[in-house]
Automatic annotation (TrEMBL):
The protein's name in its UniProt record: HNH endonuclease
UniProt family annotation: Belongs to the Rv1128c/1148c/1588c/1702c/1945/3466 family.
Record flagged with keyword Cytoplasm: no
InterPro entries: DUF222, HNH, HNH_nuc
Domain (HNH nuclease): residue spans on this chain: 299-351
GO molecular function: endonuclease activity; nucleic acid binding; zinc ion binding
The entry's keywords: Endonuclease, Hydrolase, Nuclease
Phylogenetic classification of the source organism: Bacteria, Bacillati, Actinomycetota, Actinomycetes, Geodermatophilales
Source organism of this protein record: Geodermatophilus obscurus
């Protein structure tokens, strides 16, 4: 809502002040996260890293969590830049750009080349405070070129990356980078499908045709079985839907990686897919195989996956294909191999549960987790403002 009493300059001053305050808060957060990382604080809640703790307990995305952790390391190595950030003069994005120079291998390269890191710190800070972001990027690239004037070693895997992000509506976006040879293989495979699928009257854009080609490549790989087996199960597109919804086409269905689709879409997938009937009771898949079988059957694992969806340890977002089926009461202690006595846990948290942590399923279906000292791990953590300390 605008007020005629406000002058344009006042509004812009407020914006600048808020940006500066955000910069100070971002710097303080990065510093505190670094302190927690050095203290191995995430272990208290059964997490391996501050990035995973931030994802599970503070509801931030993986990319944001990684940036906060990386920025904390930058501020530790570049004190002049840290001082400017804490004064609100440098943004978190600028600090993240400087992170390229303080990775362990870069620091070693600086030392080997006799480069004064303090000098680099001063130059970067001056550029970050006085120039635009693009100039800082060029300065960082300049230092990287000085460290390695002949280019990177010819190991193609070092430069390859792929990041996949799922959005609230279930759609997926991704970004990546491939070396020249890997990129050629990728483009060749995509182009083969693009050129093979050019029907008359096709009005799709080039980008749309390439997107369809990528999905077709995945379809072919899954259909032919030319992908590694996951957890003793052949990889497949999993869709969970109640029988009544499948029959009527109403309602929704849940997919293996957590996306929600319409029942109508699920019916379309079922046209050429195999339907497995899983009944959570005595008449369908054998959910309780008793004491005679210690290992989990395919039918039981499928039922546990459908119920739990992924690792049930509080704060963990590992998908089902990263998990083991854990006996809540150990088999050796008399626990049965049954749905009631099973829980999905990723490898890390499966180990944690065997070393003092405890998970328990409530009658409501909610899972809860306790530390070895008996205190409960809760998510999301309270994000209440920090009270000011007395002077």
């Amino acid at each position: 809502m605008c007020s005629t009493g406000w002058q344009t300059g006042d509004v812009l001053d407020d914006v600048a002040a808020l940006v500066a305050e955000r910069n100070r808060i971002d710097a303080a957060l990065a510093r505190r996260v670094r302190a927690a990382e050095l203290a191995q604080a995430p272990e208290r809640d059964g997490q391996k890293s501050m990035a995973s703790w931030l994802r599970g307990h503070c509801r931030v995305s993986g990319s944001v969590a990684s940036r906060i952790v990386g920025n904390g390391r930058v501020l530790q190595h570049l004190p002049v830049l840290a001082e400017a950030a804490e004064a609100g003069l440098v943004t978190a994005e600028q600090v993240a750009e400087a992170a390229k120079l303080v990775a362990p291998q870069r620091l070693a390269a600086f030392a080997a080349a006799g480069v004064d890191l303090g000098e680099v710190d001063g130059v970067l800070t001056g550029v970050a405070v006085e120039r635009d972001h693009a100039t800082l990027v060029k300065v960082v690239e300049h230092y990287l070129d000085r460290l390695d004037p002949d280019g990177p070693e010819p190991d193609p895997t070092e430069g390859r990356s792929l990041t996949i992000s799922r959005h609230a509506d279930g759609s997926v976006s991704f970004r990546g980078h491939l070396d020249a040879v890997g990129g050629e293989k990728f483009q060749t495979a995509v182009e083969a499908h693009v050129q093979a699928d050019r029907p008359a009257g096709d009005d799709r854009t080039r980008a749309q045709r390439q997107g369809d080609a990528l999905v077709q490549i995945a379809d072919n790989a899954l259909a032919t079985g030319a992908v590694p087996v996951l957890r003793s199960v052949k990889p497949h597109v999993a869709v969970r839907i109640d029988l009544d919804d499948l029959a009527s086409g109403a309602g929704t269905a849940d997919m293996g990686f957590g996306a929600t689709i319409s029942a109508a879409r699920a019916r379309w997938l079922a046209c050429d897919g195999r339907i497995s009937r899983v009944v959570f009771g005595p008449d369908g898949v054998p959910l309780d195989v008793g004491r005679e079988q210690r290992l989990v059957s395919g039918g039981l694992r499928r039922a546990v996956e459908l119920r739990d969806g992924g690792c049930v340890f509080t704060g963990c977002d590992a998908p089902s294909h990263w998990t083991d089926v854990h006996h809540l009461v150990h088999w050796i202690d008399g626990g049965e191999t049954s749905l009631e006595n099973s829980a999905l846990l990723c490898e890390r948290h499966h180990t944690k549960v065997h070393h003092g942590f405890r998970v328990e399923r409530q009658p409501s279906g909610r899972w809860r987790t306790w530390r070895p000292d008996g205190t409960e791990i809760t998510v999301p953590a309270h994000l209440a403002p920090i009270a000011p300390t007395a002077a």
